[in-house]
TrEMBL record:
InterPro entries: VapB-like (IPR011660). It comes from Methylocystis heyeri. This is Transcription factor. It comes from the Bacteria. Pfam families: PSK_trans_fac.
Length: 83
């Protein structure tokens, strides 16, 4: 996919960036856009960024019906210990 930069000032900035970085123009543009995207994402508060995870955790049952941590039969079965 090709992009045409018709603004001389933008073209000059891109070329200077590529020269300073010692990279091809396409790489300089790609890196600059990726960095700017990351900066914009970082502006979103952590609470909002974690919303999908919070919703997923909230969908789990509050307490398992049969917890395994204290289930003697479960652990005895793991060790073939039938007491």
């Amino acid at each position: 996919m090709a992009y045409s930069i018709k603004d001389p000032e933008t073209d000059e900035i891109i070329r200077k960036l590529a020269k300073v970085k010692g990279k091809p123009i396409v790489e300089a543009i790609k890196e600059a856009c990726a960095n700017e995207l990351e900066r914009e994402r970082a502006k979103i508060p952590l609470w909002e960024r974690l919303q999908p995870l919070r919703a997923r955790v909230a969908s789990y049952p509050a307490k398992p019906e049969q917890p395994f941590a204290n289930d003697k039969e479960f652990f005895d079965a793991l060790w073939n210990d039938e007491k």
